[in-house]
Write a structure and sequence with these properties.
With 216 residues, this protein is mostly helical. The protein is built from nine helices and no strands. The chain starts with a helix and ends with a helix.
């Protein structure tokens, strides 16, 4: 698996396709977060913006290989393992970027009534919850389920929106917890939402890997 992760990471970095979601996230955070505003509300926005960016990043990693190269890798390592490596790679970069954003927002925004470690830990847990939910959206709106680029992108946008507003979504729960905490100056990491996102992402990854092995 380590070799597959290195391979997928190398493909992603050399292709420079990671620049588009990264710049989109930077634009979201730069426009939506104002220095001096309450830190928990700003962290909630930064976490929410990470969901569609992660979904996009996962889709990039799942579709970046030429068909011939994908067949060679699948023959050498198995289609399910190759698919899982692409999913992990597509999720890891947004999580790292989100962690940097959480630290930056914590440093720049108003922490009145909230300590920096409490704000940062709350923001990190929420960011992971949103990123993993976004990874699940990206996995379900790409190969092997949707192959046409137009339908895949449309489903990704719609799925990301629904994941942010649907009751029961781990991402919505995490963002709502931060917005509520901003009103009361209570930094409580949304551990339940993060656990739900871990279960969701794991279940979707297992389903997608099994489907890939059967359908491709």
């Amino acid at each position: 698996m380590t070799a597959l992760l290195r391979y997928q990471t190398g493909l992603l970095l050399r292709s420079q396709r990671w620049l588009a979601p990264l710049l989109l996230y930077a634009a979201f955070v730069g426009v939506g977060v104002n220095p001096g505003e309450p830190v928990l509300g700003a962290l909630g926005f930064a976490a929410a913006a990470l969901l569609p960016v992660t979904a996009w990043s996962v889709r990039i990693c799942l579709t970046q290989e030429p068909p011939a190269a994908r067949s060679v890798v699948a023959a050498a390592a198995g289609r399910d393992r190759a698919h899982l490596a692409a999913l992990v790679t597509g999720t890891a970069l947004p999580v790292l970027v989100g962690a940097v954003a959480v630290l930056a927002v914590t440093a720049l925004c108003d922490r009145r009534g909230v300590t920096a470690p409490a704000a940062a830990s709350t923001g990190l847990v929420a960011a992971v919850a949103c990123a993993l939910t976004g990874a699940a959206v990206g996995a379900l709106t790409s190969r092997p389920f949707l192959r046409a680029a137009g339908w895949s992108l449309a489903a990704l946008v719609l799925g990301s929106l629904l994941a942010l507003v649907t009751t029961g979504s781990p991402a919505k729960h995490a963002v709502t917890a931060l917005i509520t905490g901003s009103r009361t100056a209570a930094a409580e990491p949304p551990w339940l939402a993060c656990a739900g996102a871990v279960l969701l992402a794991g279940a979707v990854a297992a389903f997608a890997c099994r489907a890939t092995a059967r359908l491709e």
